[in-house]
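ARCHIVE CARD
CATEGORY: sequence design from structure
SOURCE FIELD: tokenized fold
FIELD CONTENT:
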């Protein structure tokens, strides 16, 4: 009888471990943005990098997103001393362009308001990282 009891406990433990690992994998996949079932065909947004009054670059937003910051490893590199190495992430989620602050020191602002959670933006909205302003078009 005790051997049967211990075997059942082992199986329940393995089942719970499997469910835990499955939830962790789902969470990681949703944060990385590799959701192959996401519908993003209708989105054709661009980020326009503005320095002062002049336009210095355009980037078409990919569904998996872009990391913006000072680091050479960032997808969109800005040379702003007030930005962090990996400052913010801009991507497409559920058919909308979304801005995530990545725990930066000086914060990320959308239309003058500080971003504290993932925030949807539309065409014409401005995203400020340090002194650099990006416009969604």
């Amino acid at each position: 009888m005790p051997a049967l009891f211990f075997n059942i406990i082992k199986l329940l433990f393995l089942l719970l471990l499997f469910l835990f690992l499955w939830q962790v994998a789902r969470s990681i996949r949703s944060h990385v943005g590799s959701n192959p079932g996401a519908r993003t065909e209708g989105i054709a947004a661009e980020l326009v990098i503005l320095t002062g009054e002049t336009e210095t670059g355009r980037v078409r937003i990919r569904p998996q997103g872009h990391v913006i910051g000072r680091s050479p490893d960032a997808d969109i590199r800005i040379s702003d001393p007030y930005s962090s190495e990996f400052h913010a992430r801009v991507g497409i989620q559920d058919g909308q362009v979304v801005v995530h602050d990545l725990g930066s020191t000086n914060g990320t602002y959308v239309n003058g308001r500080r971003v504290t959670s993932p925030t949807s933006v539309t065409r014409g909205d401005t995203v400020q990282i340090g002194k650099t302003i990006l416009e969604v078009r």
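CARD ANNOTATION: The longest strand covers residues 54-60. The chain has one helix and eleven strands.
SHELF: design records, drawer C
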